[in-house]
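Human: I hope this is not a bother. Would you mind checking the protein record under this note? Thank you for your patience.
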Amino acid sequence: TYAPKLILLDISDISCIRDVAKEILNCYGCVDILINNASMKVKGAVQSISLELDKKIMDANYFGPITLTKAILPNMISRRTGQIVLINSIQGKIGIPFRAAYAASKHAAVGFFDCLRAEMEEFDISVSTVNPTFICSYHRQPAPGNWEASVWK
């Protein structure tokens, strides 16, 4: 058994993900199961959400999980074993009004992990996507003019 190790990671900060994955692999030697469960969402009309916020949502919900997965994947492939899980959202399958950036990021993630599943079959690596319906998440009440405070994490 291994003592638990707490490693803080902002999944939307793509630049640090590879270093964190390297730290985990150096500490434990491998990752048997990778569960991608971080997410960020915002509610608002398309015209009221800035492109900056659209990109931040895409970084957290799409680029973050795929960057972490790509960092861990070579180790799983070399061992010919592993399981990768994406906890996504029903909005990765069906978009609803006022959640365009969130739904788009979740659609992209489903597409990526569906392709990955097919590619990893020959290496005996299992790839699963879980698309639950609505989940009560932590939410901060927005201050007027503060878009960042309207983000759900």
